[in-house]
Design goal:
By secondary structure, the chain is α/β, with parallel strands linked by helices. The protein is built from 5 helices and 4 strands; from the N terminus they run βαβααβαβα. It is 32% helix and 21% strand. A 4-stranded parallel β-sheet has the order 2-1-3-4, with helices on both faces. The longest helix has 13 residues.
Length: 117
């Protein structure tokens, strides 16, 4: 994935700020659902590659997977931000204040009530 051109809007990209209550399987399912709508999700943080049971062949002092600094810098060119978990509201607000990218916060992704509000 190439980082966006500075200031260029990426209309198909969505930032996802997942809370700590989500599992690697939850993140993979979210990725599949978002991509099924033709969108490109940018998860921050994304520890699903490190916590899903895969063990690298060689030692690495950092986690596996996730997005790089260039992609993080480019999150301001996304269409919107989805924050999952109340603890991610502050990060979503900060991202909106710095970049103008609007956000929505879901306290959870299960049940009908969170999806209809």
């Amino acid at each position: 994935m190439e980082p966006p051109v500075e200031g260029a809007l990426r209309a198909r990209r969505i930032n996802v700020l997942p809370g700590c209550h989500l599992t690697p399987g939850d993140l993979e399912e979210l990725r599949d659902v978002i991509e099924a709508f033709g969108l490109e999700p940018m998860f921050l943080p994304d520890l699903s590659g490190s916590l899903d049971g895969h063990i690298p062949d060689e030692f690495t002092p950092t986690t596996l997977g996730g997005i790089g600094l260039a992609e993080i810098r480019g999150m301001g060119a996304s269409l919107a931000t989805i924050a999952i978990g109340e603890q991610m509201r502050g990060a979503a607000i900060s991202l909106e204040h710095k970049t103008g990218v609007p956000y929505v916060v879901f306290d959870r992704l299960t049940g009908l009530a969170p999806m209809t509000s």
